[in-house]
Amino acid sequence: MPSGVAYNHETVILDGETFSDCEFRDCRLVYSGGETPVFQNCQFHGCEWKQDDAAARTLAYLKAVWNAGGKPTVQALIKDITVAR
Question: Cys staple from 35: which of 16, 58, 67, 80, with CB 3.0 to 4.6 Å?
Answer without folding.
Answer: 16
